Amino acid sequence: MDGWQMRVLLVYPKDPRFYCGFFCTGTCESYFFSVVRVVGGNASLIWSANGRRPVQKNAVVQLTNGGLSLRDSNGTKVWSSNTTGNSIVGMNLTEAGKLVLFNNEGTGLWQSTIQNQTNTTSTNTTSQNDYCSSGDGLCSEGLCSCPVGVDGIEYFKQNQSQFAEVGCSRITPLSCNSPLGQQQLVEVRNFTYLSINETTEAFPNIKDMEGCKQACLQNCSCGGAFFRYDSDAEDGYCFMPSRVLVIREGQTANYTFTSTSFIKVQIPSLAPSPFPTEPEIVPPPRPKGNNLAAIAAGSGAGAFLLVCFLIFILSMKLRKSKEEEEEGGDAYTNQVQVPGMPVRFSYEDLRRATEEFKERLGRGGFGSVFKGMLPDGTKIAVKRLDKMGPGMREFLAEVETIGSIHHFNLVRLIGFCAEKSKRLLVYEYMSNGSLDNWIFYGSQGPCLDWQTRKKIILDIAKGLAYLHEDCRQTIVHLDIKPQNILLDENFNAKVSDFGLSKLIDKDESQVLITMRGTPGYLAPEWRESRITVKVDIYSFGIVLLEIVTGRRNFDRTRAESSSHILGLLQKKGEEERLLDIVEILDEDMNNREEVERMIKIAAWCLQDDHTRRPPMSVVVKVLEGVMEVDSNIIYKFVHAMGPPAVVNDRVSTAVEASVLSNPR
């Protein structure tokens, strides 16, 4: 070999030195993401992620909270650590030469394995445009420093002062409850966000840098704003990741765009004076004997009048507060519209758009949905909520949260209306309606072919995986059913009503609540009101069965032995005759192994023990053929012997932040 070179990401500085980065030999026409051991200028290959699949010069390594991945210069994913669902915050090299991914507590969640060491011809290492991945930090040549605000204030601290490559964290954590002005964006010069070359992650409708910054400041989920200008375009792209985990030094020469980077920080609150001044208290003179009774009587009467006066003032203030709440609170509701966030419509606007709510598309437990059209010709679906939430501010806060969530397989919230007692939500219009109109077999046979059904199943899984694992707060839908899966003109499936659910902090593995759901789609743990994301996975399993088999989960028109789909699945699963539960095996479903595999995925999602159900990200990989189905599926289901019981129809106040928090 003519020698070796390496673009370094991480360094273990003590002898023997270990380097992690892009390794190449000879003329460096291709690269390997590797760990090498260097002694006396000689390099030994310790580990390689893509030993059989080299990448090109502009390949990218990306660290997210789901793990580490390698993409080639064309964006193709070449390798992944397969740690989706874990809260990864950084990576480092150990003294043994192992690459380790760790969480906030410093616990290693994944590590590379030591492979057979291969010696290469020695030359000096070079590091051109080096970069590394870690926490919120500025990283170059395997070392990281912390950004400083333009005001000179330090907003970040190193996670471990003795290990600079571990990166930085905010001194004052971001708070969604902070008033406007308590957060700002720190510009990071000469660094850019690694995912900025993938424009599919950009926020729609934000075309200028100032709009991108303002949208980030208004969006609780935004951890930083990254704006990209292409050299041949007038408009730019806005990126607002919830966590800033990967930034790179400089601009890559082969990129045809420039970018500007900002990280959101919390402005520390002003501390009170350590020496507060207290007024001197002078005791009043003691009254003498004969005056004591008179003073007591007068004091009692005065106290009574004072209490009456305070009650009057309090009732007036409460009345005024209620009126201001109904009007929307001018200071809160008249704020400037932020690009990319939901648009505020007047009730009159939506009344005209729907021709006075003429065409009803459907009705749910909390209101009706009407078809409408905006003045620019955009078709919309307007959901008119029949029941009021607890307050305007809570309603608007949750609308903002829902509006900040963007994914191709989630129905997009365009806008809303909040006037006095009126609450309306405006969604993108889905021309093919809900999934339940297309999947159940009738006298004319199936409406959708097998390939379309498979695509719809994958679309639903991707949408749920995003809600469960890629949002700043884990979102549990709580009411997955065909009626809440909508189809566009190309039969792309999108999950709807995902914002009408309980937001659960990522640190909470489960919450104890009482909720409503839809009978037939409820997981067994609803009996104990113990709710995790696994209840959605159970509901997804039922929907998957309905899509594949063409049967409803419970059909009273059938014989008792086949009326309940779970009972049929249990019976045929034990008999190893899963295909018997499919209503009609069409000609385009002639791949019986593929159909049977789908049913096994559904059964995996339907395990009574919620810990045995796979996370949605794993379901996506199984559907894509990257992973295999669990071979130890138990075909015993609690709900198999009869129709599921209707759970309590009430919603506890601990869950109901607003009417938006209720499943449909």
From TrEMBL:
Listed InterPro entries: Bulb-type_lectin_dom (IPR001480), Bulb-type_lectin_dom_sf (IPR036426), G-type_lectin_kinases/EP1-like (IPR051343), Kinase-like_dom_sf (IPR011009), Prot_kinase_dom (IPR000719), Protein_kinase_ATP_BS (IPR017441), Ser/Thr_kinase_AS (IPR008271)
Catalytic activity: L-seryl-[protein] + ATP = O-phospho-L-seryl-[protein] + ADP + H(+); L-threonyl-[protein] + ATP = O-phospho-L-threonyl-[protein] + ADP + H(+)
Enzyme Commission number(s) of this protein: 2.7.11.1
Cellular localization per UniProt: Membrane
Listed GO MF terms: ATP binding; carbohydrate binding; protein serine/threonine kinase activity
One Gene Ontology term, aspect cellular component: membrane
A Pfam cross-reference name: Pkinase
Range of residues in the leader sequence: none
Keywords: ATP-binding, Disulfide bond, EGF-like domain, Glycoprotein, Kinase, Lectin, Membrane, Nucleotide-binding, Phosphoprotein, Receptor, Serine/threonine-protein kinase, Signal, Transferase, Transmembrane, Transmembrane helix
CDD domains: STKc_IRAK
PROSITE patterns: BULB_LECTIN, PROTEIN_KINASE_ATP, PROTEIN_KINASE_DOM, PROTEIN_KINASE_ST
Principal localisation: membrane
Residues in Protein kinase domain copies: 355-605
Annotated membrane topology: Single-pass type I membrane protein
Residues holding ATP: 383
Annotated transmembrane regions: 292-314
Domain Bulb-type lectin: 1-114
Name recorded for this polypeptide: non-specific serine/threonine protein kinase
Species of provenance: Vitis vinifera (Grape)
Primary gene name: SD25_8
